[in-house]
Specification:
globular; mainly alpha; 150 residues; transmembrane; two-stranded antiparallel sheet
Length: 150
């Protein structure tokens, strides 16, 4: 077997598993971190509470963190169900807008100095990889049929 054949086989293998792996990875991250919020064990709770106190005041923080965690769990579940991409991707981008806010609203918690993120800042910046995975999943969708949606 020559290097070109191995290369083609690897590319074909990765092509076959890329979407299921991306879906599963997004499920694990969202469901797991969401569940930690729901059961009160999230290491991100302090950051979420600080952001909550600066932006939201119409419900209690305890209610919000549970609802936010359930929202994350739902995003995770929807990523593993084929056919829910058009529902979950807008949910993901809404979530990402909220999770990127501390970089701007709470710079003292997310930056140790100019362009040097704290651990919390790194936790947020890594969400760019989540966005990339979601875009890759969306790129594999088939266009909606004209007969159903004009």
């Amino acid at each position: 077997m020559n290097i070109r054949t191995i290369d083609i086989e690897l590319i074909n293998f990765f092509h076959r598993i890329s979407l299921p792996i991306a879906r599963f990875g997004l499920f694990v991250v969202f469901f797991y971190f969401g569940l930690l919020k729901v059961i009160g064990l999230s290491p991100a709770s302090g950051l979420v509470q600080q952001l909550f106190e600066q932006t939201i005041s119409f419900i209690s923080f305890n209610s919000f963190i549970v609802l936010f965690g359930l929202f994350e769990c739902l995003i995770g579940i929807f990523f593993i169900i084929p056919g829910f991409e058009r529902v979950v991707i807008p949910m993901l981008f809404l979530h990402m807008m909220m999770t990127f806010m501390p970089l701007f609203v709470l710079p003292e918690m997310t930056w140790s100095r100019f362009l040097v993120p704290t651990l919390e800042g790194q936790y947020i910046i890594k969400n760019l990889v989540i966005i990339a995975a979601a875009i890759a999943i969306a790129a594999h969708l088939h266009p909606l049929s004209k007969s159903r949606f004009g």
